[in-house]
Specification:
Length: 416
C-alpha cells in the first residue's frame, strides 16, 4: 500500500505526457499535409474550389499552331531539278526561319518574302547533291510550326565547263579581261552569267558581255587600276546552260593586276611609245602593215607570249607569201594573227616605212639571243594583259571579239 499511489501517479503522468506529444505531432503533420495539398483557400482567394490554383501551369496554352509549312520537293525525293524545284511556303502564318544545306554543311542562301508567305533560294542547287531543309513558321498567336525535308538533286547526263583566262594565281596587265569559253553553246545566258561572281580590292564594277553563245568576257568600264586583286567564283555546278545540259564546275580563281603598261603604236610615224604607270619608258622605231596589209587600229591586249614561233601565211589566208620558222619575241594581239614581234629581216624599215603583212615589227636578231635589241627589251618588259594601242593606220578598228579586245566597245554597248 505504501508505494502504489505514488507509482500510479507516476504512470498516469507519463501516459498523459505521451498522449500530448502524439497529439502535437499529429497536428504538425496535418498542417503540413494541408499546406502541401493546397486544399484550403489561398490568401489571394484565387482557388477554384477543386484543389487547383488559377495560376497553375496546368492551364498553359497547349493548342497546336495554326501555321502550316509546306516544303517542295517532298521528303525523300530524288532526281530533283537544280533550279525552280525548291520552294518553301507558309499558310495561316509567317515563315520565321528557313535553313537549307548540303551534307557538308554548305548553306544555300535565300530570302523570306516580306509577307512571310514564302522563301526563295538566291541561287541554283548543285547537281547530284543531297540537301536538308528545316523551316519554321508562327501563327498570329506566336505558336510555332516546323517542317523538314531531305531530297537529292539530279545527276546530269550532259555537262559543260568554262575554259577561262587568266590562270589562277597569275599577275596580268591592266587590260586583261576575264574571258570564259564554254564547251557547249549556251542558250540560258542569264543563268550562266549570274553564277559567275567577282570580288575586287579595291572595289570596282565588273560586267560581262557575251560574244556569241559560247564566250563570256568580263571587264570594268576602264582599265584595271594597278595592284587590283580580283577573285572570281565560278559556281556553274548545276546550272542548266541549255536544255538538259548542266554545268559541272565549281571553282575560285584569283589574279592580280600588275603595274600599268600601255604602249601606243603610231603607224604613220613608225614609232611606238611605251608608258609605265603614266611615264614614258622608251620610244622605239617600228614597222607596221604595208598598203593592202594594214595593221588594225584600236586597243589590243597581249594574250600570248612566245620566245620563238613559226609564222606561216597559210594560217591567216596569205598562202605562199611567207613562212618564217624562227620569229623571235612574239606576242599575240588578235586571234586572226596580229602579233607584235621581233623582226631580223626588215632592214631599214624600222622607223621609216611599213613593210609587214599586218604585224608590228620591232628590230631583232635571228635567234633572239641579243638582249639589248629593242624587241628583246620590249618582250622582257611585257606581261599578258598589257595594252598595245594602234593609231593612224589605214585599216579599221579591230573587232572587240578578235582577241581579248573588248575595250573597243563602248561601255553602254558592253552592258546592254
Amino acid at each position: 500500500m505504501n508505494g502504489r499511489p505514488i507509482s500510479g501517479a507516476s504512470v498516469g503522468a507519463r501516459t498523459h505526457k505521451g498522449k500530448g506529444i502524439l497529439a502535437l505531432l499529429l497536428g504538425v503533420l496535418l498542417l503540413a499535409v494541408t499546406a502541401c495539398g493546397g486544399g484550403g483557400d489561398s490568401d489571394t482567394g484565387s482557388g477554384d474550389g477543386k484543389g487547383k490554383s488559377a495560376g497553375s501551369s496546368s492551364t498553359a496554352d497547349t493548342k497546336a499552331s495554326q501555321a502550316v509549312v509546306t516544303i517542295a520537293p517532298k521528303d525523300g525525293a530524288a532526281d530533283v531539278k537544280t533550279s525552280g524545284a525548291l520552294k518553301v511556303s507558309a499558310a495561316k502564318g509567317k515563315l520565321t526561319e528557313v535553313k537549307v544545306e548540303d551534307t557538308k554543311g554548305n548553306a544555300v542562301e535565300g530570302k523570306i518574302a516580306d509577307d512571310g508567305a514564302s522563301w526563295t533560294p538566291s541561287t541554283h542547287l548543285a547537281s547530284a547533291t543531297k540537301y536538308k531543309v528545316h523551316a519554321v513558321a508562327k501563327d498570329s498567336d506566336g505558336r510555332e510550326a516546323a517542317e523538314e525535308s531531305a531530297f537529292t538533286t539530279l545527276t546530269p547526263k550532259n555537262t559543260f565547263v568554262g575554259i577561262y583566262t587568266p590562270e589562277d594565281g597569275s599577275k596580268v596587265g591592266v587590260g586583261m579581261p576575264f574571258s570564259v569559253h564554254f564547251t557547249r553553246g549556251i542558250t540560258h545566258p542569264d543563268d550562266v552569267e549570274k553564277a559567275i561572281k567577282f570580288k575586287t580590292e579595291p572595289a570596282v564594277d565588273v560586267q560581262g558581255h557575251w560574244f556569241g553563245n559560247d564566250r563570256l568576257d568580263f571587264r570594268p568600264e576602264h582599265y584595271w587600276a594597278a595592284g587590283t586583286k580580283v577573285t572570281v567564283t565560278l559556281n556553274l555546278d548545276g546550272v542548266e546552260g541549255r536544255p538538259g545540259v548542266y554545268g559541272k564546275q565549281a571553282k575560285t580563281v584569283s589574279f592580280t593586276i600588275g603595274r600599268s603598261q600601255v604602249t601606243t603604236v603610231d603607224a604613220k610615224k613608225h614609232t611606238m611609245v611605251v608608258k609605265r604607270d603614266g611615264k614614258v619608258l622608251k620610244t622605239i622605231p617600228i614597222t607596221t602593215g604595208k598598203p593592202g596589209y594594214d595593221t588594225w587600229n584600236g586597243q589590243m591586249v597581249i594574250s600570248e607570249r612566245l620566245k620563238v614561233t613559226r609564222m606561216n601565211g597559210e594560217t591567216v589566208g596569205y598562202g605562199g607569201e611567207y613562212d618564217i620558222k624562227d620569229v623571235p619575241h612574239a606576242q599575240r594581239l588578235t586571234n586572226s594573227g596580229t602579233f607584235i614581234h621581233g623582226n631580223y629581216w626588215g632592214g631599214g624599215a624600222f622607223g621609216n616605212y611599213n613593210a609587214s603583212h599586218g604585224c608590228i615589227g620591232v628590230r631583232d636578231v635571228r635567234g633572239g639571243y641579243d638582249s639589248d635589241v629593242p624587241a628583246a627589251w620590249f618582250y622582257d618588259n611585257s606581261i599578258i594583259g598589257d595594252v598595245v594601242i594602234v593609231k593612224n593606220s589605214n585599216d579599221k578598228t579591230v573587232a572587240p571579239d578578235n582577241g581579248l579586245n573588248g575595250w573597243n566597245m563602248s561601255w553602254d554597248k558592253w552592258i546592254a
